[in-house]
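protien #1 (seq + structre)
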Amino acid sequence: MIEHFRVSHRDEGVRREVIVHIYESVEALRKAALRHTGEDHSEADGLMNSYGYRFSEDKVEETPGPLGLVMLHVDRLTVEVIAHEMTHAAMHQYFSVNPCDPLTPVLDHMDGGNESVAYFVGAWTAKTITELHRRGYSVATS
């Protein structure tokens, strides 16, 4: 890993943050992903590993600290990859405060009016890109 930082956002009284790690290559990212998750991520260009909450029956038990870890690498710092991983993070954020049975139809939660997810995706993506620019990285638009 060559860089790390945190990005946070508050919506509806909930402030959550994710840690962002930047790796020097896709190989370094995949090796770190295997270490962090114990799973093979040999096709990954980025990864979001959530650990900021866990389900216990019908409730969510939050753990203190960040919601999770977003892993990126310098050869694929694009708006698309960053937004993709932050969408995973935002979905974890959403379900950490809106627990449901895994078999609940997605339409019960993900309709066009789900502002919380959109705000977290937008804020975390923008803040990550801003921080990368501040550190001297360029972020491609495609």
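ok now protien #2
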Amino acid sequence: MLLLLLFIGVPLLEITLFIQVGGTIGLGWTLAIVIATAVLGAWMVRSQGARAMLNL
């Protein structure tokens, strides 16, 4: 039951925060930050994933 509440509650909280941040700093900056963090995260996954495979 707790897991179900987390699966519903966390995305709702995230959407609420996106709306609040977007209202504060504007849609363009919000999208820029989201895209920048997605690119950074993808780069980190690629680099750490390759390093982890080399360590095996």
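Residues 11 and 17 are 10 Å apart (CA to CA).
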